[in-house]
TrEMBL record:
InterPro entries: ARM-like (IPR011989), ARM-type_fold (IPR016024), Clathrin/coatomer_adapt-like_N (IPR002553), Clathrin_app_Ig-like_sf (IPR013041), Coatomer/calthrin_app_sub_C (IPR009028), Coatomer_g_Cpla (IPR032154), Coatomer_gsu (IPR017106), Coatomer_gsu_app_Ig-like_dom (IPR013040). Keywords: Cytoplasm, Cytoplasmic vesicle, ER-Golgi transport, Golgi apparatus, Membrane, Protein transport, Repeat, Transport. Its main location: cytoplasm. Residues 3-451 form the Clathrin/coatomer adaptor adaptin-like N-terminal domain. Residues 672-784 form the Coatomer subunit gamma C-terminal domain. It is found in: Cytoplasm; Golgi apparatus membrane; Cytoplasmic vesicle, COPI-coated vesicle membrane. Pfam families: Adaptin_N, Coatomer_g_Cpla, COP-gamma_platf. It comes from the Eukaryota. This is Coatomer subunit gamma.
Length: 785
């Protein structure tokens, strides 16, 4: 009953105002002779004690930390961790008692003592490093304390990658007698940043032994960790392939799934067929969650061995016919779509046609119809897809019917012999009961009847390149201010091209819906629009990635983001004071010295820059008009500010200060800053749409470039444009290649580049540029030349 009273006191501590009156009773129990009550009394007393009363029980807490009874000592140590949040300075005085408790023979006392010591010293890297060295040399008796020691060492090494003495701690624990400690050490080594294959070898060897352990938990932990290693260092796990193949038949299907997905990452091309057969033998027995993991591993394998796409497509199509939930089916569809898009030889999408015949998921059906409309017209026999698509118009719900109408229009726009049939089908769709379906059918019918390639490219093939949320805001703003001028699409921010290179790591699928966060561009647009000097600059065209103007270790850490508008550029610089905690900076201003063609209009300083708190300043520069050479340039940057010394105790700055300046690295404005990537699904149609009015062509020699792949990557990076038609992938054993790039130049001008590359004693490049304005064409050729 008394222990129940302690629990009641702890729970009522936050809602009762008079709970403090039981302090004397709890203090008496805490120092009493009944050990069974002393531990709970300490925990209850610390729960109700505030910072002002902590000193009154400090003597009792110190005695309890070094108490011979392990439950009392542990209670005092754990309570000390909680009291740090209330009064860190008081608990810091208990460090000697915690040091003494850390040498205890009891495993839990030692574990809790190490935790207290770390939290007392975690803000002092040197003190933490000394503590690690001490316990690594003297050793610990608690396996839990060893695990915490390894995690502390790992965290210290991640914070300070160079010259840290922490790495020997997890490395030495690989020879511990406790399996828990060995696994923790191996896991810590594997998760270290920039860990080489040689440093991974001891950890992988330990995990390989765990793969043959009789304990399922150890086998699961080992294969799960090896799976993570295989993502970055597949060659390091190759030695474990035999052990992993033995786990494929493991009675625990979770272990078998992780083993097969690890083998898919590490296996050779010749082993793909055999692995697929082994997967098919048990895939029906595992949950949808693990089936998704298998599908994602197959997708990664297809990128690694594209010639095996036919085997994988057959396997995936069989999985598609099996029963399963939405996330599982979506993973398969996404995988098939990625294979179709990445492999020109795998254009046949008949598997997907069969799937949508009885697909109950609207999202998947519309996604497949979009793919059929995009890839179907380019297949050898496009007519065979028409029946499947039109069946969706007859049998499905409104959203699927609308997607099917759009897919039909794409077939008619790209295949002249199919156009009469498509027009008839669209006329039937005009009788649909849904407004969206009727509107789409009417619109596409009228566009196709014009039989103009430019119209087809604009309204059917390539669609809108603007941001839909941005267009919604612009239209709303337009309605608020009545004007006789028509709405200008160039006032709408562009939609950024999807980055296919950033593949997400394989994780188990979450069923929680994702919240739509505003894009980076939208955030910058709102921030800049709130500044009066930038209100009339128009829509934000593009924001660059942050560029460092100083080294991270210097006293000032400065980064710059270049915001491009139609006729202006805004330099936004964020500064952080690293190691001058006794000084305060005011009126921080970064001055730029532009070329003769650029004009600095205004500078907005940061009013104050306290230690370790970022400050932002802006510089507005007018861009030159119709000057192709001056579009790029170098800006010299100098930071000027007023320094005021601060009182070391109070942190209050002095009244008077002195002016100072700090020279920063030069800031480059490149051609890619003026261009926004846009995707053109049908480059040929877009090329014809732009026309040859401002077309220009030149030939260049890339003498220092040795391969076509290197030339393609360098051109894409330099121009900052979006590769189309998968032209960024160079086929094997080819001496020539065509690269197609699309973008929009600031001001809203479409910009297309066709680059023909030939390999012979370096790379020769013939560049053809088209735009609806002459300046973007001249800028591209001037920058390349």
């Amino acid at each position: 009953i008394e222990r129940m009273c302690y629990l009641t006191i702890k729970e009522m501590a936050t809602i009762s105002e008079d709970v403090i009156i039981v302090t004397s009773s709890l203090t008496k129990d805490m120092t009493g002779k009944e050990d069974v009550y002393r531990g709970p009394a300490i925990r209850a007393l610390c729960r109700i004690t505030d910072g002002t009363m902590l000193q009154a029980i400090e003597r009792y807490m110190k005695q309890a930390i070094v108490d011979k009874v392990s439950s009392v000592s542990s209670s005092a140590l754990v309570s000390s961790l909680h009291m740090m949040k209330i009064s860190y300075d008081v608990v810091k005085r208990w460090v000697n008692e915690a040091q003494e408790a850390a040498s205890s023979d009891n495993i839990m006392v030692q574990y809790h003592a190490l935790g207290v010591l770390y939290h007392l010293k975690k803000n002092d890297r040197l003190a933490v490093s000394k503590m690690l060295n001490k316990f690594t040399k003297s050793g610990l008796k608690s396996q839990f304390a060893y695990c915490m020691l390894i995690r502390i060492a790992s965290r210290l090494l991640k914070e300070n990658e160079e010259g840290s003495p922490a790495f020997p701690a997890p490395l030495s624990c690989l020879r511990n007698k406790h399996e828990m400690v060995i696994y923790e050490a191996a896991s810590a080594i594997i998760h270290l940043p920039n860990c080489t294959a040689r440093e991974l070898a001891p950890a992988v060897s330990v995990l390989q032994l765990f793969c043959s352990s009789p304990k399922p938990a150890l086998r699961y932990a080992a294969v799960r960790t090896l799976n993570k290693v295989a993502m970055k260092h597949p060659s390091a796990v190759t030695a474990c392939n035999l052990d992993l193949e033995n786990l494929i038949t493991d009675s625990n299907r979770s272990i078998a799934t992780l083993a097969i997905t690890t083998l898919l990452k590490t296996g050779s091309e010749s082993s793909v067929d055999r692995l697929m057969k082994q997967i098919s033998s048990f895939v029906s027995e595992i949950s949808d969650e693990f089936k998704v993991v298998v599908v994602q591993a197959i997708s990664a394998l297809c990128q690694k061995y594209p010639r095996k796409h036919s085997v994988m497509m057959t396997f995936l199509s069989n999985m598609l016919r099996d029963d399963g939930g939405f996330e599982y089916k979506r993973a398969i569809v996404d995988c098939i779509i990625s294979i179709v898009e990445e492999n020109p030889e795998s254009k046949e999408a008949a598997h997907l046609c069969e799937f949508i015949e009885d697909c109950e998921h609207t999202v998947l059906a519309t996604k497949i119809l979009h793919l059929l409309g995009k890839e179907g017209p380019r297949t050898p026999v496009p007519s065979k897809y028409i029946r499947f698509i039109f069946n969706r118009v007859v049998l499905e719900n409104e959203a699927v019917r609308a997607a099917a109408v759009s897919a039909l229009a794409k077939f008619g726009a790209q295949n002249e012999n199919l156009l009469p049939s498509i027009l008839v089908l669209l006329q039937r769709c005009m009788m649909d009961t849904d407004d969206e379906v009727r509107d789409r059918a009417t619109f596409y019918l009228n566009v196709l009847q014009q039989r103009q390639m430019a119209l087809n490219a604009t309204y059917i093939f390539n669609g809108l390149t603007v941001s839909v949320p941005g267009m919604e805001k612009a239209l709303h703003q337009y309605t608020l201010e009545p004007s006789e001028k028509p709405f200008d699409m160039k006032s709408v921010p562009l939609a950024t091209a999807p980055v296919f290179e950033q593949k997400a790591e394989i994780t188990l699928v979450s069923t929680k819906p994702e919240k739509l966060a505003p894009s980076r561009q939208d955030i910058f647009q709102e921030q800049l629009a709130a500044i009066p000097e930038f209100m009339n600059l128009g829509p934000l065209f593009k924001s660059s990635e942050p560029v460092q103007l100083t080294e991270a270790e210097t006293e000032y850490f400065v980064r710059c983001v270049k915001h491009m508008f139609t006729n202006h550029i805004v330099f936004q610089r964020k500064t952080l004071v690293n190691n001058m905690n006794k000084k305060d900076l005011e009126n921080k201003l970064i001055l730029v010295e532009p070329s003769e063609s650029h004009e600095v209009l205004c500078c907005i300083p940061a009013p104050s820059l306290p230690y370790n708190q970022p400050g932002v300043c802006y510089t507005l520069v007018r861009l030159p008009e119709d000057d192709s050479v001056a579009a790029t340039g170098t800006f010299s940057c100098t930071m000027r500010f007023t320094v005021r010394d601060c009182d070391p105790d109070t942190g209050v700055p002095a009244e008077e200060g002195y002016d100072d300046e700090y020279v920063l690295e030069d800031l480059e404005v490149t051609v890619s800053d003026h261009i926004q990537k846009v995707m053109k699904p049908n480059f040929a149609a877009a090329w014809e749409e732009v026309g040859d009015t401002f077309e220009k062509e030149e030939t260049f020699a890339l003498s220092s470039t040795k391969t076509l792949e290197e030339a393609v990557n360098n051109i894409i990076t330099f121009l900052g444009m979006q590769p189309c038609e998968r032209s960024d992938k160079v086929p094997e054993n080819k001496n020539s290649h065509s690269l197609y790039l699309a973008g929009v130049y600031r001001g809203g001008y479409d910009l297309l580049v066709r680059s023909r590359l030939a390999l012979a004693d370096g790379v020769t490049m013939q560049v053809t540029v088209r735009s609806k304005e002459g300046t973007p064409v001249d800028v591209i050729l001037a920058s390349v030349g």
